[in-house]
Design a protein that fits this description.
InterPro entries: Acyl_CoA_acyltransferase, GNAT_dom. Keywords: Transferase. This is GNAT family N-acetyltransferase. GO terms for molecular function: acyltransferase activity, transferring groups other than amino-acyl groups. It is a single chain. By secondary structure, the chain is α+β, with helices and mostly antiparallel strands. It has one domain: Gcn5-related N-acetyltransferase (GNAT) (Aminopeptidase, 3-Layer(aba) Sandwich), CATH 3.40.630.30. The chain is built from four helices and six strands. It has a six-stranded mixed β-sheet. The longest helix has 15 residues. The mean pLDDT is 92.
Length: 155
Amino acid sequence: MEGEITNLKYSVRSFIRTEIENCVDLYIKVFNSQPWNEEWSYDIAKERLTDLYNTPKFLGLTLYRGRELVGFIGGNKKRTPQGIVFYIAELCINNDIQGKGLGSLLLESLEEQLQENKVSSIYLITSNGGLAERFYIKKDYEMNENRIIMKKTFN
């Protein structure tokens, strides 16, 4: 993305490598709190976000309030027979400003950039029945009737 998208006191920028450390701190703050209540350590969160950044065809955006990082979104593009698709791996907004339209600002900025790059669709995984699911439904995302998520846990 060239330049910045500015919305009053918030600006959306391309996610660059030097922001990983700040994103790790925000990630831990958000996902170790309600409603997620996960147990992210600094090292594990840093590995996750560094791996995401290093994924081929990574695309990410950051959200700033002045000089303070308050959100980010990231994922990667993949080519399929139906065209290029994008997988959102992470969307993270500071707990203190959730519900104020800033997740929408980030998501819509990403969608605009993806459409300019001929991406045909976006996929993501999120928890069901919660605020995140309602957020995406409000943004016209829908359940993919042709796919399910499966897992196998090793003891």
